[in-house]
From TrEMBL, chain A:
Transmembrane segments: none
UniProt source species: Salinibacillus aidingensis
UniProt-recorded Gene Ontology molecular function terms: ATP binding
Protein name according to UniProt: Methionine ABC transporter ATP-binding protein MetN
Domain of life: Bacteria
Record has ATP-binding as a keyword: yes
InterPro entries: AAA+_ATPase, ABC_transporter-like_ATP-bd, ABC_transporter-like_CS, ACT-like_dom_sf, MetN_ABC, MetN_ABC_transporter-like, NIL_domain, P-loop_NTPase
Gene this chain is encoded by: metN
From TrEMBL, chain B:
Originating gene: metP
Organism: Salinibacillus aidingensis
Keyword Glycoprotein: no
Keywords: Cell membrane, Membrane, Transmembrane, Transmembrane helix, Transport
Domain ABC transmembrane type-1 positions: 18-211
Family membership noted in the UniProt record: Belongs to the binding-protein-dependent transport system permease family.
Name listed for the protein in its UniProt record: Methionine ABC transporter permease MetP
Length: 342, 221
């Protein structure tokens, strides 16, 4: 459990106004969770993640991580604590002068692990991130995705409890991004470590996070379970992020827009939240009831906790059958909105 | 044929002088390497906030700038009392060493500082995030990651040093410069001057080649 209270970072400047990069953030992050922080560049998210391991010194506030008050450590204690907090970076930050093997061994050298133990640990990590056979390559001989795998292995070397990911996939292509995200999820499950992800891509949040905090202008403006935030984005910034993965038309097509095109039947708006989308509800309707279903518009996206999205359908048939079908839908967890035909 | 081209050149003199030049260059390159890296690291590591850092940086930078501003021939004269006290003599190749090192180290220190500034800030940050001490950052990040630039900088400095040894020779340090000046110029035997020139150029070429080779070989970027 990581708890962050009143965390602030103010950059003092002699010539210009002070800049408040992180403004009074309160968060608590559960053990073993994948927690996402999303924001546009300049929102303060990179500063925020650097405050957690004190690469940046907080101006104010408290951070409790691994049962230790991070803001209250001596330099020596801080260095020891940092060994238990892994970090990966947008630009990987590998040492070009070291091979894959030696890069991963680097944090072990810092921790003073004897050579023989280092060797077996590095070998184990290389297997874990899928880089077997590349031990003697230099970073310049690797692709971006492979470099990030080295970064991840390096971050895990001292068996951290927490992994901080600073825009870890922002420099990668979409396919490689997904591979790295899959790796992060499998590490999260295998090792049970807490992962904090900083990103500007909603795709990343959607794919791996359980909890999300939206940052704007140094503040957390919205926070909660990913699905909940997807479903009911309150702030404008959040809505823009949700649109990144849902497309522009979300919430923009009022149901009556479709209605005028049909003379009989009903137009339904099905709202999927969570696992319900896996119930194959449309095909069940068609099999059980004698109705015609025409999909008008839809947008479903998969998040870590199930599908989320909206489907507009036109249902036609004998009136009582249609009503029965509607009742059936209402018994499921799909949210339903019905527009009668005029 | 060589006898006809260089009638006044004594092989034994040439050999002794070359050895002296190589001795002076070799030892002073080593000394410059150590002192220059120390000063360069000091300049780099103190270039940040804090009163102690700021004042240390100011003092180091001032020393480096002052010694870099003094022309070498004057520096040798200036250092005579120091040399006499340190080496017990002001003549011969050994006596040239303090001036050579003190003359070249500030120049190399600036090259070291530039090389260290070129090290990726992200890599240093990553090392700090792993809990690295300053010692780790210096020996495992800064120096290895800047090694090609440190070597090519040392090559430039070494070639400067060869030319410094020749200058030191003119006031009694021995070596090829000394030979060219006394046996060549003062006796008006220009074949001696020419022979010394050829040897110095060869030495410079060897240093340049070795430096370039090494710098390229260790660069895995």
């Amino acid at each position: 459990m990581i708890s962050i209270k009143n965390l602030s970072k103010i950059y003092k400047s002699k010539n210009r106004d002070d800049v408040t990069a992180v403004d009074n953030i309160d968060l608590s992050i559960n053990q073993g969770e994948i927690f996402g922080v999303i924001g546009y560049s300049g929102a303060g998210k990179s500063t925020f993640i650097r405050l957690l391991n004190r690469l940046e010194e907080p101006t104010d506030g408290k951070i409790i991580m691994n049962e230790k008050d991070m803001t209250n450590l001596s330099n020596k204690e801080l260095r020891n604590e940092r060994q238990k907090i892994g970090m990966i970076f947008q630009h990987f930050n590998l040492l070009w002068s070291r091979t894959v093997f030696d890069n991963i061994a680097f944090p072990l050298e810092i921790a003073g692990i004897p050579k023989e133990q280092r060797k077996s640990k590095v070998q184990e990590l290389i297997e874990l991130v899928g880089l077997a056979g590349r031990e003697d390559y230099y970073p310049s001989q690797l692709s971006g995705g492979q470099k990030q795998r080295v970064g991840i292995a390096r971050a895990l070397a001292n068996d951290p409890k927490v992994l901080l990911c600073d825009e870890a996939t922002s420099a990668l292509d979409p396919q490689t991004t997904d591979d790295i995200l899959d790796l992060l999820v499998s590490i999260n499950q295998k090792l049970g470590l807490t992962i904090i992800v900083i990103t500007h891509e909603m795709h990343v949040i959607k794919k791996i996070c359980q909890q999300v905090a939206v940052m704007d202008n140094g503040k957390v403006i919205e926070q909660g379970e990913v699905l909940e935030v997807f479903m009911h984005p309150k702030e404008k910034t959040t809505r823009r992020f949700v649109q990144q993965v849902m497309g522009e038309q979300v919430e923009q097509s009022p149901i009556h827009y479709f209605v005028k095109n049909y003379e009989s039947g009903k137009v339904l708006r099905l709202h999927f939240v969570g696992e319900t989308a896996n119930q194959a509800i449309i095909s069940k309707l068609v099999k059980r009831f004698n109705v015609e279903i025409n999909i008008l518009q839809g947008n479903i996206t998969q998040t870590k906790d199930g599908a989320y999205g909206t489907l507009y359908v036109h249902m036609d048939g004998p009136e009582e059958v249609v009503n029965e079908a509607i009742k059936y839908i209402q018994q499921t967890s799909v949210e339903l909105e019905v527009e009668e035909n005029a | 044929m060589l006898r006809e081209l260089f009638p006044n050149v004594v092989m034994e003199d040439l050999k002794v002088a070359t050895n002296q030049t190589l001795y002076m260059t070799g030892i002073s390159v080593l000394g410059t390497l150590i002192l220059g890296i120390l000063l360069g690291l000091l300049l780099f590591l103190t270039d940040r906030q804090g009163i102690l850092n700021r004042s240390l940086n100011f003092i180091t930078a001032t020393i480096v700038n002052v010694f870099r501003a003094i022309p070498f021939i004057i520096l040798i004269l200036l250092l005579f009392p120091f040399t006499d006290w340190l080496m017990g003599t002001i003549r011969g190749p050994k006596a040239a060493l303090p001036a050579l090192i003190i003359g070249a180290a500030p120049f190399y220190a600036r090259l070291v500082e530039i090389a260290l500034k070129e090290v990726d800030k992200g890599v240093i940050e990553a090392a700090r995030a792993m809990g690295a001490k300053t010692r780790h950052i210096v020996f495992k990040v800064l120096l290895p990651e800047s090694m090609p630039a440190l070597i090519s900088g040392l090559t430039v400095t070494a070639i400067n040093l060869i030319s410094f040894t020749a200058m030191a020779g003119a006031i009694g340090a021995g070596g090829l410069g000394d030979l060219a000046y006394r046996k060549g110029f003062q006796a008006w035997d220009f074949d001696v001057v020419f022979a010394c020139t050829v040897l110095i150029v060869i030495i410079v070429f060897i240093f340049q080649f070795a430096g370039d080779f090494l710098s390229k070989k260790i660069d895995k970027r």
